[in-house]
Amino acid sequence: MCGIAGFVTAPANLIELTTITKKMVGMIAHRGPDDNGIWVDENCQIALGHQRLSILDLSSAGHQPMQSPCSRYVMVFNGEAYNQLLMRRALETSGQAPVWRGHSDTETLLAGFDAWGIEETVKRTIGMFAFTVWDRQTRTLTLARDRLGEKPLYYGWQGQADEAAFMFASELKALRVHPAFENNISRDALSLKLRYGCIPAPYSIYEGIAKLMPGSLLTVSLERREPKVWTYWSGAETAELGVANIFTGTADQAVDELEVLLKDAVRQQMVADVPLGAFLSGGVDSSTVVALMQAQSSRPVKTFTIGFHEAGYNEAEYAKAVAKHLGTDHTELYVTAEEAMAVIPRLPTLYDEPFSDSSQIPTFLVSQLARKHVAVSLSGDAGDELFCGYNRYFMTANLWRKMIMEYMPLSLRRLLAKGLTSISPQWWDKVLGAVESFLPRSARFANVGDKLHKGAAVLASPSSDALYRGLVSHWQDPESVIISSHEPSTLLTGNSPSLNGLDHTQRMMALDMLTYLPDDILVKVDRAAMGVSLETRIPFLDHRVVEFAWRLPQSMKLRDGKTKWALRQVLYRHVPQELIDRPKMGFGVPIGAWLRGPLREWAEELLDESRLKREGFINPAPVRLKWDEHLSGQRNWQHSLWAVLMFQAWLESRNPGQP
Length: 659
Prior knowledge:
By secondary structure, the chain is α+β, with helices and mostly antiparallel strands. Helix content is 44%, strand content 14%. The mean pLDDT is 91.
């Protein structure tokens, strides 16, 4: 895992190219503290920089930037090609292999470029990556990002006329130190931030800077300034092809094939020349990954869990039970609310652009814990999107399809929704908590009050697409909050893929895979882990697993009131069912309660009406209304308020000392 940065520019001398590149990669040294390198070509006005976190081939043979065997290509690479040994074997079998200098995957990919070309090599690669390669023959720069968007890559032209530069980097902080960077905040992107809690690709918080979309390639040159972007792998097409070519075997055969695929993905991702472990929450996804790791390891796998003293947010006891059963080398750390809140001042710099998934806090804490023991950690992310794990899938599949669409008119639904939301989530928790002990475990839900308020959104939705958009929106009308903004189209608003053949629940899963997963979950994990120089790997995002998951019938994902049915069957072969079956809790912190308590003064300062007016980005009226309702306990607006607060904290970090 590494950090990359560089640019193509108007005429500049060698000293200027080198000095700027050193500054850029220096800003992302945390992504690769073990080594760094720069390659510049004064004649072509190209500069490439690299910060290395040494995982494979710790020798100097893995140093980057690296040239291909024929010297045509020069590359900086961030990520892992898990099947690189198979790629080497293919090159050797065809007589196209060079004399290998080391065993890094970067060297393998460059040899593939020489033999097969860039796009064909990317299509052959199983892995996570973001890279930039300079073709010295055609004087063209190519950018690439992995299929599901695990690794980040920002790019764009900045500067005017003869001073303009095309720049790229793993993180925005590397771009900001380039002298041509214009530093203009995009109000339109900010409106997206308030809707989703993150800024979805291809947008960024800065005008003129974009994120390369997952599964995409881009080429650009000084002669052809307009970037050409195209897709080499499509998640939407994968979903459509999957449901059109559904798995026709038995349920047992499906579980067998899924286990084989997952075991191979886990096996490939356990290859490292440094200590390796895994995050373990005790839930289905992380437990499956750890179980398959331990089944293929000759020694106890190192596992890591963060625990909280607040019962509604603590899964550490479940993780400990799973670890004990599997025999892992388990480390857990219970953190106080004060220790968790101490992370908040670091978030604006860590995440680099406004980002407000509050589980960023425990994600950083568990990454920090793991880094004390290992350099690589596997995680169970993406199991929910692929195997129908989120409560909203279960809720809408039953409530929307079976009840609302068939029996209840919209006017009556909206009246019922108003009644549900007129009662605070805290009151619902108190009343329903009293009867919960009499219910079977499968009928219990954590944070039931919040879920009832979300259920109200289901009731009031005029269509399934509107329902989904409402469920994932922190602010339903962000243009009314961000001054002089116009919300751009996204995959959820005006630019939706067709997703032919998918039913309503499958459509939600696909849109989550295309948006929420890369723009929120994977950003959260990448920045938190790389902030402490920890590489994370996600076996569920092996594209072979993704493609097979979409071929599974929906009945093998959601069955008898159970989400992730097929995945659970794999796990039950390794871990007793009673250790796993419990209400889904999620990985979060009690932000709502903190805002009413220890964070109240901090939040009040950031949400001060005169301050908001002076800064000129946020309309104070709707924000102050939600803040007052939240403080009174009338409503739980934690997600809406956290979205605003994380922008305010980020804005303050740009101008320290200026409230």
